[in-house]
Amino acid sequence: MNFLAETCLLTHGLRSVTEEAMERAWPFGDEKLLTWVDEGRIVVGSMAEYLPFRARHEDVTRIDCYTLQEALDNKLSGALTASGTMAACKLMGAELAVTCGMGGIGDIQGEELCPDLPALAELPVALISTSPKDMLDIPATLGWLREHGVLVTGPACTGYVFKSAYVRTEAPAESFSSARAIADRLKKGGLLMLRPIDEGLRIADMSILDKAVLAAKTAETEGKAFHPAANAEIDRLTDGRSSEIQLESFIDNIRFAKGITEES
């Protein structure tokens, strides 16, 4: 079993992390684990190959499962969201995608139901994620997945970079720590594996989340994307700590995926 890791977080979500810091933190060397779209071509590459793409495309678009084919047909470039990565997995014969903070149900223009959810319900690809993002309705998000046949595993979901929710999952993460178990599950329905950030490492000041949502809603009125604006405000108000813990979590999720795929 192979896996692909998304690139929206690395492109738009880590406002204060420099390229040099990202390279220092990245433990996977030249392994080709990341995926993005460059002039209509799905690229699977290393961090060293991704960073020049990021430098060339500061305002690169976000590509999801609904816009991937259009990007390929029209030779566009962009970073892949969780659902976009799942769609790329389907095209390339992989059964596992990796993200960090995923989308869900929320008060976001054009994304009241994030494509990450239909992708989990409809594509034969499992997703490893830290959690739905804190500014979303996490109980409604996980409830929608259950109602649409997606099994959610892991410890109780208590939020992403904040402790913003409490929702029980349906099975321990260890139930799907092998490629065979994942493949067997995908014959029956979708699979989301949550791997939360330790609560002791999260941001305690919930007022920061409120300020980030306000900044993101203001960005929406200016025609800008919600999630990058929210991430940027949380990064600013935590002196970059939110970006650090997201990158650490993303790396940990990739390690987990590697453990699964190397066993197969």
Task: List the topology elements.
Elements: E1 3-5, H1 8-13, H2 19-25, E2 34-38, E3 41-45, H3 47-56, E4 61-63, H4 68-73, E5 78-80, H5 82-92, E6 96-98, E7 101-102, H6 116-122, E8 126-129, E9 131-132, H7 138-147, E10 151-153, H8 179-186, E11 191-194, H9 207-221, H10 226-237, H11 241-263
Parallel strand pairs: 1-6, 4-5, 6-8, 7-9, 8-11, 10-11
Antiparallel strand pairs: 2-3, 2-5
Description:
It is a single chain. With 264 residues, the chain is of the alpha/beta class. The chain has a single domain, classed as Indigoidine synthase fold (3-Layer(aba) Sandwich), CATH 3.40.1790. The protein is 44% helix and 14% strand. It has 11 helices and 11 strands. The protein has helices at residues 8-13, 19-25, 47-56, 68-73, 82-92, 116-122, 138-147, 179-186, 207-221, 226-237, 241-263, and strands at residues 3-5, 34-38, 41-45, 61-63, 78-80, 96-98, 101-102, 126-129, 131-132, 151-153, 191-194. Strands 1-6-8-11-10 form a 5-stranded parallel β-sheet, sandwiched between helices. Strands 3-2-5-4 form a 4-stranded mixed β-sheet. Helix 8 (179-186) links the parallel strand 10 (151-153) and strand 11. The relative contact order is 0.16.
